[in-house]
Design brief:
This protein has one domain: P-loop containing nucleotide triphosphate hydrolases (Rossmann fold, 3-Layer(aba) Sandwich), CATH 3.40.50.300. Helices cover 55% and strands 13% of the residues. α1 packs across α8. The chain is globular, with a radius of gyration of 16 Å. The mean pLDDT is 95.
Length: 208
């Protein structure tokens, strides 16, 4: 990551896996350790990206093609990286991001069938080669995850069970391909147990 001095940690996982809750808890934990932490989410995090998020998740946009969808996610990501993530890393902050490029690989690549290598190539361009130092992947059975989410489903969440199973299997394949970067966490444990696991991983990784 060149001159960038900070630490970039991403949280990935299926709907209902608890990743967003755990990301918030980790930020709270690190701040108690007096660390300078920035917490962002994808798609979103900055004004332009949040507007793109609204388009992506709107159930009314049924005609959106998988190519359009992929490029919109990349556009939102590019803005977030340039506007927030890169400056924070250059200042030496710990950046915790709820979803990043692995999400596009899982949802649009393995889920929708968009070419994986093409996603990686566009991803390198959109992220300016910024990649996570550590990724925590929260794994859960698809049916249980969707039941846990329990809210009105957005455009992506409304897709078929087969689609969501492809996404989950895609995530697990990505984890196997990147064992040094990605730690898989069982999301069926209690929130407190999962938080202990997350903190233990982070403590070892950051040597705190």
């Amino acid at each position: 990551m060149g001159v960038r001095k900070g630490i970039f940690i991403t949280f990935e996982g299926f709907e209902g896996s608890g990743k967003s809750t755990q990301a918030k808890l980790l930020c709270r934990y690190l701040r108690r350790k007096k660390m300078d932490v920035l917490h962002v989410r994808e798609p979103g995090g900055v004004n332009i990206s949040e507007k793109v998020r609204q388009i992506l998740l709107d159930v009314k946009n049924k005609k959106m093609t998988k190519v359009c969808e992929t490029l919109l996610y990349m556009a939102a990501r590019a803005q977030l990286v340039e506007e927030v993530i890169l400056p924070a890393l250059r200042k030496g902050k710990v950046v915790v991001c709820d979803r990043f490029l692995d999400s596009t690989l899982a949802y649009q690549g393995y889920g929708c069938g968009v070419n994986i290598e093409l996603i990686k190539m566009i991803g390198r361009f959109a992220t300016q080669d910024v990649s996570p130092h550590l990724t925590l992947l929260f794994d859960i059975d698809v049916k249980k995850g969707l039941a846990r989410a329990g809210r009105v489903k957005d455009r992506i969440e409304s897709r078929s069970l087969d689609y969501h199973n492809r996404v989950r299997q895609g995530y697990l394949k990505i984890a196997k391909q990147n064992p040094k970067r990605i730690r898989v966490i069982d999301s069926l444990a209690s929130k407190e147990e999962i938080q202990k696991s997350v903190c233990a991983i982070i403590n070892r990784f950051l040597k705190i």
